[in-house]
Design a protein that fits this description.
Layout (H helix, E strand, L loop, with lengths): L4 E3 L8 E4 L4 H7 L8 E2 L6 E9 L2 E15 L6 E16 H8 L14 E4 L3 E3 L1 H9 L13 H12 L1 H10 L23 H7 L1
Parallel strand pairs: 6-7
Antiparallel strand pairs: 1-8, 2-4, 3-5, 4-5, 5-6
Length: 203
């Protein structure tokens, strides 16, 4: 069984502290969907403090996930680190109960708590998507230097683009994030309408 799987039999009698001890390979695999923007640093502390309880067939999970991710700032292109301390609060229903609640013919108005509701199948809860969701909510959408490194970010940004390009961008109010698009050549469509100016000149 995977390190990130929780058996209902283990929490049948009373709430328990879930002791997870994943390998570095398991942690890297867990956050592989983020790796284009964020890479988990497995040499740093990675911890999952989790309490699980069972109410009938409903699993209640609470705790937090901590870890450190490396990323490349989208502005200055320097490598930075971002530490997450992500709260983890989920209600996990059996597949049958979840279907009855959310897949019925009658539409329901979702509340905030419904966004933290998932489901399990059989006798095992897969914690991986829940942990990923908790961390994803805390990672910045746009990887960039934190405010306390703004001066360093500005200096690296100016050094990277050069004075001439920087002056040009500021003069034209161009965002550096769009700068790579300058090399894209648009192909002319074969069915494009003829140039009316050229036709009139030729006639």
């Amino acid at each position: 069984m995977s390190t990130f799987e929780l058996e209902l039999d283990d929490i049948q009698a009373k709430p328990v502290e879930v002791d997870l001890d994943p390998t570095s390979g398991e942690v890297e695999s867990l956050f592989e969907p983020f790796e284009d923007d964020y890479h988990i640093l497995t040499e740093r502390e990675f911890a999952i403090d989790l309490q699980a309880s069972l109410d009938g067939t409903t699993v209640m999970l609470s705790g937090r996930v901590t870890g450190t991710f490396a990323f490349e700032c989208g502005r200055c292109l320097e490598e930075r680190e971002f530490e997450v301390v992500s709260p983890l609060e989920f209600t996990v229903l059996s597949r049958h109960d979840w279907s009855d609640t959310y897949e019925g013919e009658e539409e329901i108005a979702l509340e905030e708590k419904d966004l933290d509701t998932s489901y399990y199948e059989g006798n095992v809860v897969d914690l991986r998507p829940l942990i990923r969701d908790a961390v994803m909510m805390d990672l910045p959408v746009w990887p960039q230097c934190p405010d306390e490194l703004q001066d360093e970010c500005d200096a690296a940004y100016e050094s990277h683009v050069g004075d001439e390009t920087l002056d040009q961008l500021e003069h034209n109010s161009v965002d550096l994030r769009w700068w790579p698009l300058r090399d894209i050549e648009l192909e002319e469509k074969d069915d494009a309408p003829p140039d009316e100016t050229s036709e009139s000149e030729s006639s």
